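Bench notes, afternoon.
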Amino acid sequence: MPFLQTSRDRAGALIFALAIGILIALTPFLSGLLGAAVLYVIFLNPYKRLERVLKPGIAASVILVAAILVIALPLSWLIGILIEQAPDALRRAQNSGAFARVAQLRIGNMPVGAELAKASGALVSWLSAQLVDFVGGATSAALNLVIAFFGLYYMLRSGGEMWTAARSYIPFSPRTADALRDRFFGVTQATLLGTALISLVQGTLVGTGFWLVDLSNPLFWGTVTAFASILPVLGSGLVWLPAVVILVSQGRYGAAAVMLVIGAGIASNVDNVIRPLVYRRVSNIHPMITLVGAFAGVRYFGLLGLLLGPLAIAYLFELLRFYREEYGTPSEERAIPAVPAQRHQ
């Protein structure tokens, strides 16, 4: 049958074209829309408890205010610290005599120090450029943040209706679709809880370490560590390891030992304990895959991509698992693993 010869074909083509156009138009706000979905997962259970004693509109408004107080204000404060202290911290790092001392380090005939100093200078320059880009994108980030929080409000108000409408378009059986939704909720909650806990603990530890060994801008570097710790494999080592090198180059071996114990002995072990528990909850995804997801997420969603990228990969693996269980073995009896009894709107 020739294409677009029937009314059904023409209607389908029109809907597809409109959907593509809307998707392109919404691309700049995609992180805000995805952020709204993540916030919905976080605050759905508190909303349901409030809804038992308050009207839905009032309960949603209370949750919105709580979300702003718990997430938006602390995040704005942390970003303010980064913007305020970053220029001074990076300038001090570039003007520090530590780079010159590191450049003199040699191992045999190999000028190891010169290469380390060159790499450190390149890293500082890259951080400076990223800061400029970050500040330049502040308006877009603020707009996406507004979209995320107002999206949270409207999703709470119509969550059950949205799921009822969306489930009919999901290419799985109703039972599998419900199990998939519950699994997405579990994956999101586990990932966010583990990531937030790691960031808080490692940022506090490394910032305290900077203060104890009398390195400049401990609050700034603690904040940087909190964001860097979202990255698996590398994480907080991007901050405390250069600090150890600088302290050694200054001849402060005791301070370097203290920083090494805090970074490698405590902060990294916190990561090694918490992160595997999170990965076990999200289908044992390898840390390197999550690392790639974080970098890809930053490329497309900005700072929020550090969370959305790994989550997207986790969702993909869950979709593949449910697809295999639903369609992969037609000759066998397929059963979806039991999901804890938890109903979501």
